[in-house]
Write a structure and sequence with these properties.
The chain is α/β, with parallel strands linked by helices. It contains 13 helices and 18 strands. The strands form three sheets. It has an eight-stranded mixed beta sheet with strand order 3-2-1-4-13-16-17-18. An eight-stranded parallel beta sheet has the order 5-6-7-8-9-10-11-12. Strands 14-15 form a two-stranded antiparallel sheet. The longest helix is centred in the C-terminal third of the chain and has 16 residues, at 348-363. Bound molecules: zinc ion (ZN). Zinc ion (ZN) binds next to loops.
């Protein structure tokens, strides 16, 4: 199960010549130690050892070389409505600057990415505009569309409640049929699990606390149980943005893949939070938030994901009930959590497993660890560089961050296939990101092999 992923490969070499050698420190065999990482001409890690002979050398001194993050949940709004204020170019730029090397893009676009034509349009719009790699999920609305979509999609996204830009499957569509159709393809399905039948409209949702009361954790729990009951055993299922410790425990018990977001992990419902903090599912009271964070620290939450969903500030400043749900977060996700590592509240190992290793396994991508053969998507972090988040230093076109003033550590460099794309907080890459598909999507045999790796 992805929850118990392994990290056992010894440091070693494949014998390919290193074109570039990064010399610094890294988390290797359960501790931080001096290390050199060789990168070959194909942009893959060729060696990880105390000393690596080879070509060009880059001395990073005390700084840490970490695998780039893989964000399982981002809304790049491509294509989006006029004035959406985000697209592939801006979204992946923020990813690059925040240490995210692969972002999984959601299908609630305009038009929604629910048919092969929309997916092809999206793929075409990605060319030469991506600062990092993306995986495109197709919206899962009808079993009949799944076979055609599966030829180009990187996976599927299922919304069980209405959300910005996409509707849940029609009432007549059987959840079991939908999920079985995806199982046939071997691809992943990520589920937004909230049951609108359990929403409680006792009072107008005019605050973050009232938003939580309106869309309670019980609605999440009911939807999760419904999905679990309908999911065929071979389905590669992933539950998005879990907010409740009880649900997390239930999913861990089942060995079920799921994610939590920085906002749900770090921020409880408090008086005075405005609609910038309006998200779906809602922020929870501090008892639930603390419980979620404790489980994350204990390594019991398999994946970290941003649910990056930027909305223009003017939209967020509308009266609370009308303000859209979602907040930008892909640029701050890793920096916020690295600051928690620096504060001694979280182990680096736990963060790397949740942000890189497990998401890569779930997506079937040769990424996420410092091992020979993996693509050299790497970031360089200096733990002395603690800063506070300032929206005017971020790169979201929406121009705001709910995390304003929080402590953060931004990567000083980001390597993409071994090429430096970020240096000293500036993007200097060449927009060479690609649309990726899981290795297991290529053939039934590769799918079986990948399933054995992930589920062992
Ligand atoms: Zn989302």
């Amino acid at each position: 199960v992805p929850v118990r992923s392994r990290h056992r490969e010894p440091a070693g070499t494949l014998g390919r010549r290193a074109e570039l050698v990064l010399s610094g420190r890294a988390w290797i065999q359960h501790r931080i130690q001096p290390v050199e990482v060789g990168i070959d001409a194909q942009g893959r890690i060729s060696a990880v050892a105390r000393t690596v002979p080879g070509g060009r050398r880059k001395d990073l001194n005390e700084a840490l070389i970490l695998p780039s993050a893989i964000d399982l949940h981002a809304h790049f709004r491509e294509p989006g409505p006029p004035g959406a204020g985000e697209d592939f170019a801006t979204g992946t730029l923020q990813a690059a600057l925040g240490g995210v090397g692969v972002a999984v893009d959601m299908p609630n676009t305009l038009p929604p990415t629910t048919d092969p034509e929309a997916l092809a349009t999206k793929d075409a719009r990605a060319r030469r505009r991506l600062a990092v790699d993306v995986v495109l999920l197709a919206g899962l609305t009808s079993p009949a569309r799944v076979p055609a979509l599966s030829r180009t999609a990187g996976g599927f996204k299922l919304y069980l409640s209405p959300t910005t830009g996409i509707e849940p499957p029609a009432p007549g569509v059987s959840l079991r049929e939908l999920l079985s159709a995806v199982e046939e393809t071997g691809l992943l399905v990520s589920v937004h699990a909230e049951d609108p039948g359990r929403f409680v409209s006792a009072r107008p949702p005019e605050s973050v606390a009232a938003w939580d009361a309106y869309r309670p954790a019980g609605a999440e729990r009911a939807a999760v149980e419904r999905v679990l009951a309908a999911a065929p055993p071979g389905l590669r299922l992933h539950i998005a943005h879990v907010t409740d410790p009880g649900i997390a425990d239930r999913l861990v018990e089942l060995g079920q893949s799921f994610e939590a977001t920085p906002h749900h992990l770090l921020e409880p419902v408090r008086p005075g939070l405005d609609a910038r903090w309006k998200v779906n599912p809602p922020l929870r009271p501090s008892s639930a938030q603390t419980g979620l964070w404790e489980r994350f620290r204990a390594g019991r939450i398999p994946c970290l994901a941003s649910d990056h969903a930027p909305h223009p500030l003017a939209e967020k400043q509308r009266p609370f009930p009308e303000a859209p749900s979602g907040m930008p977060g892909i640029e701050t996700m890793i920096p916020l959590l690295l600051a928690r590592v620096r504060a001694g509240e979280l182990s680096l190992d736990t963060l790397l497993r949740a942000s890189a290793d497990r998401p890569a396994r779930i997506l079937g991508l040769p990424l996420g660890r410092l091992v020979p053969g993996h693509r050299a998507h790497l970031m360089v972090v200096d733990f002395r560089r603690l800063v506070t988040v300032r929206s005017d230093r971020l790169h979201a076109p929406c121009g705001w961050s709910a995390f304003e003033g929080r402590e953060a550590i931004f990567p000083i460099e980001h390597y993409f296939d071994g090429r430096a794309i970020v240096s000293e907080g500036e993007y200097m890459g060449d927009r060479e990101g690609r649309v990726l598909r899981p290795e297991y999507a290529r053939s039934p045999a590769a799918r079986a092999a990948a399933a054995a790796t992930v589920d062992a």
